[in-house]
Write a structure and sequence with these properties.
The protein is α+β, with helices and mostly antiparallel strands. It is built from 17 helices and 15 strands. The protein has helices at 2-10, 12-33, 165-175, 177-202, 208-228, 239-252, 254-265, 270-291, 301-325, 332-353, 364-383, 385-400, 413-425, 441-448, 450-468, 492-506, 532-557, and strands at residues 54-57, 60-63, 69-71, 77-83, 93-99, 103-108, 111-116, 127-132, 141-147, 155-157, 161-164, 430-438, 473-476, 481-486, 515-523. The strands form four sheets. It has a six-stranded antiparallel beta sheet with strand order 2-1-4-9-6-7, with no helix packed on it. It is elongated, with a radius of gyration of 33 Å.
Length: 558
């Protein structure tokens, strides 16, 4: 009973979290059971001004049947016009235009009443423009002049609204509601991850950096989706700020995700590290090129598309090796989420380049994929919760022990013996011991000095780490004795040949030496405990094989 009470108090925060979740779930169920629908303010009644428009083509005016529409006009400038005499001109009404072009000018008869971008390329993609009808009272006709960047695309004209500003604002907010809700969700999830990271840091639990990297990725994703909807532009201000922040968020968001995967997989891949910095550098270079008017920021999107494709290949290799081949399950759900993320991203990129996905809707698929990825990452976090608690329980014990060998950065004897205990408690299906020993170390020390002997030990250890550390655990268990423990089926002959080749390459600049090794492997009963004596017996067998090979090598050199 006392042990049960101690266990509950030790997991107080965990039980409290689940209790809050249950209360919220009961609240939602109660609200549905006692459902009370109410009729709210209509958010789809903003008046549209979609008919009666004319456009100028070759000096002649042609009617537009209705907006929205697509016009095939080659000119870089398109002029639209419409009679105002048939409209009720109220001073508190506004005209609302959405454009994706370089500039827009609006005249009421001969008077210029609105101008955006002043003819400069200020990136007015998917921006809303509002013209007060107060400036148009008494005018008989309104003229709209649009200028686009190039003549390689059709003119896509959107709906024009003519209504009270509040009615239009309500409608636009409703249209952008998915993006706003998604942004709110990502912000809340970001705060949750930051809170978890602070809790882990306070409890001295590893994984703080990975949580913060994931939080940064989700934060940038939420910012990109909200800014790409351009809903922030309905309140005016610096339109270009929304545009460029949207590009910056899109160009940068893959960098923290690569960092998150590298930290979670404990990968030492230099390719991922370099690719992360390339993403950040590319964003800075592209923004600088636009700042100095060398190239438009929208014309640099292909660079980040290429980088996304490269990162897909790199992560696919990492996931295949760690999650599939090595059967590392702690990121299995995140692996599935990554598949959805990159599939949606690649599909969006392909549809964008073939003209099937308007740039204004480029985040639609990504939003759904990101929701799936967040769910998968959350699942992994929940599944890993017990591991974090177990790590916390053993943290004080591990802190008191020096588990790293300062010369070789391998695990030392203490770490090795704890590993044996772990193997006994949770035996793998297959266990391999490989023992290494530097030949004639005493002769090297006596003849050339201990610093040369230390250099031989260091070189032998680094070669062992480079070959075996990605797939197993490496330890220095004696002065010149090392042990590698593998728990997966591997091509041992190939790995040892690789080690011999690497040692020969590294052994050129110091006093030549050789290393002997021996190994033993065994299939274990992974369904239950295996005695520590059985584990040690396998290690002793490897030790016997090591000295047998050392003896045979000594005979062959005589």
């Amino acid at each position: 009973m006392r042990k049960l009470i101690r266990s509950i108090s030790g997991h107080y925060s965990l039980f409290l979290f689940f209790a809050v979740c249950i209360v919220l779930m009961l609240t939602v169920l109660t609200s549905f059971y006692f459902s009370t629908p109410l009729s709210g303010i209509s958010i789809s009644d903003a008046e549209r001004l979609d008919t009666g428009w004319m456009y100028e083509d070759g000096g002649e005016l042609s009617p537009i049947e209705s907006l929205p529409c697509r016009l095939n006009v080659d000119a870089l400038t398109l002029k639209l016009s419409r009679e105002l005499s048939d409209l009720s001109q109220e001073a508190n009404h506004v005209l609302a235009f959405r454009t994706r072009y370089e500039s827009i000018r609006v005249w009421a008869d001969e008077t210029l009443v609105y101008e955006a971008a002043q003819g400069k390329e200020h990136a007015l993609g998917s921006m809303w423009h509002f013209v007060s009808l107060r400036d148009c009272i008494g005018a008989s006709r309104i003229y709209v002049e649009l200028t686009r960047y190039d003549a390689s695309a059709h003119w896509d004209l959107s709906t024009v609204f003519l209504d009270h500003s509040h009615a239009i604002l309500m409608y636009l907010l409703y249209q952008a509601l998915p993006a706003i809700l998604f942004w709110l969700f990502t912000m809340l999830f970001t705060l949750l991850l930051v809170f978890v990271a602070l809790f882990m840091a306070g409890q001295k639990i590893s994984g703080v950096s990975s949580m913060l990297a994931l939080a940064a990725f989700i934060f940038l994703s939420g910012q990109w989706i909200l800014l790409d909807s351009k809903i922030t532009t309905i309140f005016g201000g610096n339109y270009a700020l929304t545009y460029f922040l949207s590009y910056a968020a899109f160009y940068l968001l893959t960098a923290p995700y690569l960092l998150y995967i590298q930290l979670m997989l404990d990968s030492r891949s230099r390719v991922i590290r370099y690719l992360t910095w390339i993403f950040v550098g590319n964003a800075g270079v592209c923004m600088a090129l636009h700042l100095f008017q060398v190239v438009s920021i929208r014309d640099t999107a292909f660079t980040v598309h290429i980088l996304i494709f490269l990162s897909l290949l790199v992560l696919a290799k990492e996931f295949w090796y760690s999650v599939v081949k090595q059967k590392e399950r702690k990121l299995f759900c995140t692996f599935l989420g990554t598949v959805f993320i990159y599939a949606a991203g690649l599909i969006s990129i392909v549809l964008y380049y073939i003209g099937k996905l308007p740039p204004a809707n480029s985040t639609t698929l990504y939003s759904w994929a990101l929701l799936i990825m967040i769910f998968c990452a959350t699942t992994d976090a929940i599944l890993s919760l017990s591991r974090f608690w177990k790590q916390k329980q053993y943290m004080d014990h591990y802190r008191r022990l020096a588990i790293k060998d300062s010369m070789t950065m391998m695990g030392n004897r203490n770490a090795y013996e704890m590993r044996l205990q772990d193997l006994s408690a949770a035996p793998p299906a297959r266990l391999i011991f490989i023992l290494f020993d530097v030949d004639n170390l005493k002769f090297i020390n006596d003849t050339y000095g201990h610093h040369i002997g230390d250099q031989a030990i260091y070189t032998a250890a680094q070669c062992i780490r480079e070959v075996f550390e990605p797939i197993g655990a490496c330890y220095r268990i004696g002065g010149d004795e090392f042990c590698v423990i593998l728990t997966n089926a591997v091509d041992l002959d190939m790995l040892l040949q690789k080690y011999d080749f690497l040692l020969a390459q590294q052994n050129k600049n110091i006093v030549p030496f050789s290393v002997s090794y021996g190994w033993a492997e065994k299939n274990l009963n992974s369904s239950g405990r295996v005695s520590l004596e059985e584990i040690i017996s396998l290690q002793k067998t490897a030790d016997v094989n090591l000295y047998y090979r050392k003896k045979e090598k000594h005979k062959s050199t005589k």
